[in-house]
Amino acid sequence: MLWCRCHSAVLHGCTVEDEAFVGMGAVLLDGSVVEKHGMVAAGALVRQNTRIPCGEVWGGNPAKFLRKLTDEEIAFISESAANFANLAQVHAAENVKSFDEIEFEKVLRKKFARRDEEYDSMLGVVREVPSELILPDNILPDKSPEDAAVGSVDPHQFTCDPNKRRHGQTVLTKYGLTG
Questions:
Q1: What 3-state class would DSSP assign to 67?
Q2: Looking at the whole model, is its pTM more than 0.70?
Q3: Most buried residue, 5, 37, 50, 112, by most Cβ within 10 Å?
Q4: pLDDT digit string (tens) for 79-99?
Q5: 2-91 has which fold?
Q6: 52 closest CA partner among 41, 71, 65
């Protein structure tokens, strides 16, 4: 049984195909199938061995066919699937960081943080660097927080190869050199 904490969906012995949508609080029981581009509405109870076909919205308790999806809704489901997959990768990368990596990132972000352009314009400040913080996520040079505090770390000189992760640590690569 899979229980999704953030959406409170319960998936028990069912099949949810790629690019299918399961709403918040929905319950899918044994043998139920949600086909690609199928949608289960929030709070729905999908009974055992129920098949939700492509392009249909099902909802209620027990779930029943409500209507066909529009082309825009199908595109939204596909886009949402890609967004959630990317979010899952970011979540996984963030959760393997050690306490020291997190603290070091905090130091770097504070050190290189900038006010937004509107704030700067009110003060009459013009910056040569963009106001956005250009510190890629999940990138930490092999330095200690003390080194960052004294200004010896330039976070822009590092890149990360996401395919090279060893024991939860990001392997860094300087431009053109493998590490």
A1: strand
A2: no
A3: 37
A4: 887 888 888 888 888 888 899
A5: UDP N-Acetylglucosamine Acyltransferase; domain 1 (2.160.10)
A6: 65
